[in-house]
Amino acid sequence: MSVYFEEGGRVALRVQCCETLESCTPFLADWAALAETAAFGEWFAGPEWIIPLIKTYFTASRLAICFVYKGEALVGVVPLTEEAHGSNHCRPHLAFPVNPHVRRIGLLASVRPEEVLQVVFAHLAVRSQPVSRSCLGLLQVPEGEWLDCAVRAAAEQSGLARLTQFETRSAVIDVPNGWQEYVASRTSEQLHPLRKQRKLKARNSEQWEFRETEATGDFADCWARVLHVESRSWKHADGTSLVNDLGAEPFYWAVAMRHAQRGKLRIDLLERNGEPVAHTLGVVHGRSYYLLKHSYDEAHRALSPGFQTLWFTLEKRVAEGCTRLDLLGDEMSWKRAVATSLPRYVSHQLFTPTSLACQWCRLTEQVLKPIARAVEVKRLAKR
Q: What does pTM read for this prediction?
């Protein structure tokens, strides 16, 4: 079924929605091309990221990958998967497929993104499946940027109510005027771990060297070195390394392989006497670099190998022509030290105004919980 959206006499947009990865096959070439050229969107919404993600973490979920066409041209993709329940344990609903490894997905659009969202909302409203009749989660949206504005506008124009909740912050480094100007903008305190590392290395007779690779050669050896570092990192003890975090290794392997074949993968290693001590794993897309994974061997913590490797990576990516370095993940102290901005993310839950369950969720989150927190603070103050 296709739903059409037309405004001001322009060519109508139509939606074709796929509920399995197999049914997406006819759209893959157009989807990949749009991921490279879309005026709005990031590569997280492209097939090179979405397909490994779904195969790893959303195998049991119903899909609703919406392809929006204008005539014969693909002008938008909105990838959605079924969530068993939301943060408030509401009914099954569709949402951007995010998880602790993938904090944002978004959409792709070569026309106004609010138009793409409107026609997708209209399509979901007439679907016969029960999952489409509950709320729609557009999660981890950068606050104040184009997607946030598009969601708010499309929801208003479509007559949908909205519950917006603030999420975490991330860290971004914008380097519009070159590496040296960026370095000059950092304070002595921010650069202290780097200088400490250089002093300690100067006193150490062992051989330390960086290994920069696009992993287009012996990928298996390069990947084994990454896993070696992960298995000796603090993340491994916490159960969050690529080696012992369930599903992480096959997911990132698939992503890395796809991007290595296209020359987008970047793996940088710091080695001591030939043994890997720290690594960064990331992807270059356009003039942006995305840091997917970063870790170091805990045994060398005193030498700050993680910070040193990160610094090496950032400088190399700027030399390649990248002007935006996205550190992804949650805000952390070491990220704040190098970031030029800390964008905040919001999650939007959209629903029809007649949904009493969703209205109750909004009342709970926006009114009752703040009152409860305020009352508790007053009680603590009296004590």
A: 0.85
Angle between helices 192-203 and 305-320 (to 10 degrees): 110
Task: Give Cα separations from 153 to 4, 74, 108, 114, 360 (angstroms).
Answer: 19, 22, 17, 6, 23
Rounded distance, CA 269 to CA 213, Å?
A: 8
Looking at the DSSP bridge assignments, the partners of residue 162 are 350
Reported as a single tens digit per residue, the pLDDT across 210-269 is 877 766 667 888 899 999 999 999 888 888 888 888 888 999 999 998 888 888 999 999
The tally of CA atoms less than 13 A away on the side-chain side of residue 301 is 5
Architecture of domain 172-326: 3-Layer(aba) Sandwich (3.40)
pLDDT (0 to 100) of residue 360: 77
Q: What stretch(es) of the chain map to CATH 3.40.630.30?
A: 4-168+345-382, 172-326
d(CA 10, CA 70): 10
Going by C-alpha positions, the residue among 367, 362, 343, 344 that lies closest to residue 352 is 362
CATH architecture classification, 4-168+345-382? 3-Layer(aba) Sandwich (3.40)
Which amino acid appears at position 137 of this protein? G
Model pLDDT for residues 163-214, shown as the tens digit of each residue: 898 888 889 999 999 999 998 888 877 776 565 555 445 555 557 788 777 6
Instruction: Report residue 382 CA to chain centroid gap.
Output: 43
Cβ–Cβ under 8 Å, residues 150 and 117: yes
Rounded to the nearest 10°, the torsion over CA 233, 328, 102, 212 is -60
